[in-house]
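Name: Cbb3-type cytochrome c oxidase subunit
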Amino acid sequence: MMTQGWSWWVIAIVAINLVGCVWLLWWTGKRRPGDPKPTDTSHYWDGDITEYNKPLPKWWINLFYITIVFAIGYLIYYPGLGAFAGVSKWTQQKEHATDKARDDQKLEKTFAPYAGKSIDVIARDPKAVALGRSIFNNTCATCHGSSAQGAIGYPNLSDDIWHWGGSPDRVLQTVLDGREGVMPEWGKVLTGMGGDNAVDYVIAYVRTLSAPASMENNFMAAQGKSLYNGVCVACHGVDGKGNQELGAPSLADDYWLYGNSTESLRQTISSGRHGTMPAHRQILGETRARLVGAYVWSLSHKPGSTASKASAEQQ
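Structure predicted for Cbb3-type cytochrome c oxidase subunit:
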């Protein structure tokens, strides 16, 4: 917000400019005693070309004065004199809010047919999916990518792996209210339980969850199993398939949100992770959230896909 001192400074500058323009018009249009006649300048070229010094027409000068009067009226009606808000009280925020309300009203007519519908139902409508894709590209692609395949730390939305549940209601809840996944730091705890190599033992065991045959004659995995059962089983389960109520991912598949390198897994276990999916209820509203949810749903539920068949069986 502009201080009173700066406000008066701006007002003074504007007033000086306006008065200066009026004075300049009056001074340059004034004829003084002794001035030559407009046709008597004594400037000649090529014998028959004469330079005149005729004043501007009165109507032209009056247009300049009218422009100055208009500028004064504009500065009274709109904000332009320091902190003076103008008699109209116009602001960019109000203008933006008015334009947004008008455009939102138009959009609501477009989105109205999908209000309240389940996202799996909406996903059957190609037009709705196209609308959802447009919303996704404007809102979600920053984190999840234009192809929705995610990146390190950002989930792939085009597969059938859902850390928080893949039912229509769970997906919609994720979009509307966001999610916050926290993996605690377990480095010190595990070291206290199993020594300096404890974290690596757990990593070795976790790798066997997606390849049980590798457990055979695997000393490090055998050591890690007891550590896993003492610390990790509470969230990820005995079989390592996770808990969607907690957002605890399955460790028994080949998908790794933060990468599957030993260094990445060591950092995850030792230092923990904190992932946040922002809530979009206030940003998108419920109907647009349903449309973007339908688009995401359609990526992993294409006709004939395993996920699509499973969903149909559940219904």
